[in-house]
Design a protein that fits this description.
It is built from 8 helices and 7 strands, in the order βαβαβαβαβαβαααβ. By secondary structure, the chain is an alpha/beta fold. The chain has one domain: 3-Layer(aba) Sandwich (Rossmann fold), CATH 3.40.50.720. The chain has a 7-stranded parallel β-sheet, sandwiched between helices. Helix 4 runs parallel beside helix 5. The longest helix is centred in the middle third of the chain and has 29 residues. The structure holds NADP nicotinamide-adenine-dinucleotide phosphate (NAP). NADP nicotinamide-adenine-dinucleotide phosphate binds next to helix 1.
């Protein structure tokens, strides 16, 4: 066995596309990848917020790309913008996502389509566009999809979200099967209950909030900082032999 002194988590010189880079988990993961050495192509719908400053503080570049992933129309433009600015792509983090809550008996077609379009359809077509570029570069690459506890569990009142996130887990496996031979790692991170805008309604409901914390072995909501290590690992050479895995980062929720 050859012992290497090279840091396997070093991402210096790599280029990462992060969707939904302006808020919550996406902002945290963009910053963590920059801290590990990546230039960040940050995709946002309404502007990148504080993320350019967080990335600049690490000494890495931030490329600002605006796109509404409710449709797949911007997919080619995102890849083109990354290539124009950076010349290559190494990592895609498919993070942008939405949730709609309603009893299944009342669930509206619009709330089905909106979630499926952002959380599943755009995820697939962005992965396809990134993988085509990895093949063209003959470089391999890393695709990290953001799944959920509802990739493993049913949940309540979130029919389209559960369907989409369960789909993300399956899609992650399928893409790994097809692309692992090309040196492309496709994996997912399944965050547990994280304190972001996505979960404001749950945290503001005192009863749900108490029930959720009471069931998390770690005894607290997660934060975007909890995803820093996992996202860097899955973007780095340290995970070169990890394919099709959905990594729960959940304070132990699923083991309960
Ligand atoms: P968040 O704070 O609501 O952030 C969601 C991000 O997605 C925002 O940047 C948002 O942009 C972007 N986005 C939504 N719709 C978009 C669209 N049509 N086009 C482009 N960008 C769009 O929520 P978060 O918790 O950080 O969620 C990030 C990911 O983690 C999502 O996939 C979510 O499902 C997943 N997740 C979250 C949790 C949790 O507990 N928070 C748990 C499991 C999984 P705008 O600011 O413009 O809306």
């Amino acid at each position: 066995m050859v012992f290497s002194t090279v840091n396997p988590f070093d991402l210096s010189g790599k280029v990462a596309i992060v969707t939904g880079c302006n808020a919550g988990l996406g902002a945290g993961m963009a910053t963590a990848l920059a801290q590990a050495g990546c230039d960040i192509v940050g995709v946002s719908r309404r502007g990148p917020g504080n993320t350019p400053a967080s990335v600049a503080a690490t000494g890495r570049r931030f490329i600002d790309v605006r796109a509404d992933l409710a449709s797949i129309a911007p997919v080619e433009d995102i890849v083109r913008a990354a290539l124009e600015a950076c010349g290559r792509i190494d990592v895609l983090v498919n993070n942008a996502g939405i949730i709609r809550r309603c009893d299944a008996l009342e669930f509206a077609p619009d709330d089905w389509d909106a979630v499926m379009d952002v959380n599943l359809k755009s995820v697939f077509f962005l992965a396809q566009a990134a993988a085509r570029q990895f093949v063209k570069q003959q470089s391999g690459g890393k695709i990290i999809n953001i799944a959920s506890m509802l990739s493993f569990q049913g949940g309540v009142r979130v029919a389209s979200y559960t369907a989409a996130k369960s789909g993300v887990l399956g899609l992650t496996r399928l893409l790994a099967n097809e692309w692992a031979p090309r040196g492309i790692n496709v994996n997912a991170i399944a965050p547990g209950y994280m304190a972001t805008a996505n979960t404001t309604a749950l945290r503001e409901d005192a009863e749900r909030n108490e029930a959720i914390i009471g069931r998390i072995p770690a005894g607290r909501w997660g934060t975007s900082a909890d995803l820093a290590g996992p996202v860097v690992f899955l973007a780095s050479n340290a995970s070169d032999y990890v394919h099709g895995h959905t990594l729960a980062v959940d304070g132990g929720w699923l083991t309960r």
